[in-house]
Every structure is written in C-alpha cells, then in structure tokens.
Amino acid sequence: MSMISVENLDVWFGRGRDRVDAVKGASFAVKRGESFGLVGESGSGKSTILRAIMGLAPDWSGQITVDGKAISGRREKGFYKQVQMVFQDPYASLHPRHSVDQVLGETLLLHGFTDIDDRVVKLLDDVGLGGKFRFRYPHQLSGGQRQRVAIARALAAEPEILLLDEPTSALDVSVQAEILNLLADLRVEHGLTYVMVSHDLSVVGHMCDQLAVMKDGEIVEIMAVDALRAMKAVHPYSQHLLEASV
Fold first, then answer.
1. For residue 72, what pLDDT band results from cuts at 50, 70 and 90?
2. How many other CB atoms sit within 10 Å of the CB of residue 35?
3. What are the chain's domains?
C-alpha cells in the first residue's frame, strides 16, 4: 500500500474568468519510507500539490490518500500528527518574537505531549543544534539554524510523512548540503516518507528514489532517480531539464 497516493488531482485558484488551473490531472504514488521528488520550473505546480495535500489549497478535485485513508475537506487533528510540512523560507515560518523553546514547546503542547522539556532537548539534539540554542530567537540564528528549528518543529508531532517545499533554496550554498544530509539521516532514523519539491535536479538526485517532472501544471514524466542520473529521460521537456542542469 502506498503511503501517499494522488490521483487525477486538479487544483485551481479563482472563479469564472479569473480561474487559474495550477495543477491538472496529477497522479503519483509514494511508498512507505520512500523519498519522492517533484521537479520543474517555477510556476509548474509543484508546491501547489504539497499545499493541496496539507489542506492549504481549498479548491481541488481528484483523490488524495494518506496511508490508505482518503482525505477531503478540512483535515482532522490526527492528520497533522501524521503529516507535517517544512517550508522554503525558515525565517518567515518562525514567529520572530517566539524563542526556539516557545516554538517547539507550543507545538508539542498542541499535539498533546506532556514531557515538554525532555522532548524539546531531544528535538534540538536530533537536528544537530543542542540545548544552547533553546532560548534564542530567530534573529539570533543563521538561515541554516532557523531551518533546523523548522525541521525540529515538524518532527515534534512524530509524523510519518514530511512534505519538503524547497527546504534549502533560501540558504547559502555552503549550508544547503548540511541540511540535505540532515534530512537524509532523519529519514533513515525515523522511518520517514518524503515528498520533496525542488527546481534543482542535483538535490533530487541526492535525496529521492523517484521523481515526477512537472510542466505547466501537469506531470509529464515519472522516473526512477537512476534514470535521472543516467540522463535517460523520455519526455522532451524532461530531456531539456536534464541537459540544462549539466
């Protein structure tokens, strides 16, 4: 059984003449423990798919299934214990007036945990920060450190699935590899399933088992990462992306 299944997904914004079809007929499946990439140019609909799964894009049709359960309408609380998302900009996703301790502590409380102190320390250790960062504020952290806090917050619920929306694109090149390696390690340690959005094929090649190539809201090809590395795309647009990345 697939951990995530998306079938004939359409996502749109606006109504009538103002309607914009952001995703058209997208279908893919992600096995438990797999890392699946969504790649394509800006505006191709990659992030919109993640937002539809999370319930952040209200207008959609088709079927989204998580761990065998079809989801529709407003997400139940239990959904957010199973599925969490890490956003592109680590500064915008953290409250500027909340310390790291508040960010993680409030998230843990929200998900019903009581041993907050121990869990905050464990989360910071898991993402390679440690207790010395516990009472710092976002403006006292580097971009990479902020993204580590955002990842820790996502892990607080003990989810099985992480949706990663270009998690390193806002970071310095020198820090990107550190965050990607952290995510790869966490996937193994926690048995996580990933769906990762990226415009960078080298990132997807490093992180993912399979990938879907998107163009103008449609998935034009799904391939194994081995085919990506071997430059063996079938669709002309996929071939173009590969050639442009060399």
1. confident
2. 24
3. 2-245 (3.40.50.300)
Of 62, 46, 7, the C-alpha closest to 163 is 46
- Residue 237 has a pLDDT of 92
What are the tokens at 48?
A: 């919109």
Separation between Cα atoms, residue 31 and residue 221, nearest integer Å: 18
Give the predicted TM-score (pTM) of the model: 0.95
Distance CA 95, CA 153 (A): 12
